[in-house]
Amino acid sequence: MARLPQELIDTVVMEVKGKPDLQACSLAAWKFVPASQSSLFRRMYLEWDSSSRTAPAFERTRLFFQDHPHLTLYVRDLTLDIPKSHQDQAILEIVLRMLRNLERLAINGHAQNWDDLLTDLTYTISCTISLPSLQRLHLLRILRLPASVVLHAASCVRVLSLDRITPQSLRDIPAHIPPNTQLENLILPWCLATNALIRACDFLLTPQNLRRLSVEVRDTGYYRPPIVASAAHLRHLQLECGISSIPFDLPLLPNLRSMVLVLPRLVGTEGLWTLPENLSSTIVTLPAVSPRLEALHITIRISTFQTAPTWQDHIPFPLFAARSYRDQLPALRDIQCCFGYFDTFMPCSGIWFELALQSFIELMESQMPAPFHDGILTVGRASHRSRVNYLDHLP
């Protein structure tokens, strides 16, 4: 063992995934310790029970890192809740200052106002966002977040998601802002506060170097400006539609490689289920809009139901009716169609869902006969998410 290079030992230990196995490795030999500890402490959670007035885990973490400061160097991925008491916020601020190598930070504000948080904590959060190592930032449920904080985040990290974020009523940045050159992946889920956020943080609509964009399509049409601004560079686009079936108005996306469409099923004549019209109209434009497309993922969502569904559509999409689609989309190698609920936290199972899924499989295979026969079409159920670990589903 002593003759093996440390690099080889580290490589072997880094392949161990389970926490009990890593703990056993750290106790097996002193040469196993660095790599074991690096894996054990790479991802950390600081969770706070909103039903409790205190967050004892925060104090235990502070004491632990004060006794073992070298372990703070291993923490790369931190997911945290902001507690409500200023005492616990002060402890969290101390812990954050210890972590200087973070690459991913996810913060759940639990619907607290930014101005009500401890001043030292908000300052430390801003300093953490400025860390050269930080690449991914996810902000969830923070009220009255200053536009300057959003601008700072968009200028520092490469991946940014803003979910249920409301801005301050008074914009605290000048009207003319230099273009952002850092952000590559922007995720803007729709909620009641999104329109206000976009008005206060309009610089999010004019990114120059986005490679990946995920937005929800609503009547306000705020989704289109960032697509247009980043059209030359965009490689991945995800569009989600609510209950309505709003037509997509997409510009030319010459470098787009992957497109994800999340759409509602509609109800046609005589109560028959039908695919949304904007799906058909988008597929028609794919060769002109995204000629280098490699992957197309479609998810159709439904509400709960208790009767066997019957689909109205059985006419193939013209683009995919014959193998000539290969001439129009020569790079296309993967089409995935998924079927699930609007509530992504609801398991896609049960007798009625299985019936609906089987009829959906038959429908999509008939809608895209050429890709089906070419073996590039797969149809199945949508993935199930966990409410508890929502932030884990983000990049």
From TrEMBL:
Gene3D superfamilies assigned: Ribonuclease Inhibitor
Domain of life: Eukaryota
Protein name per UniProt: Uncharacterized protein
Family matches, as InterPro entries: LRR_dom_sf
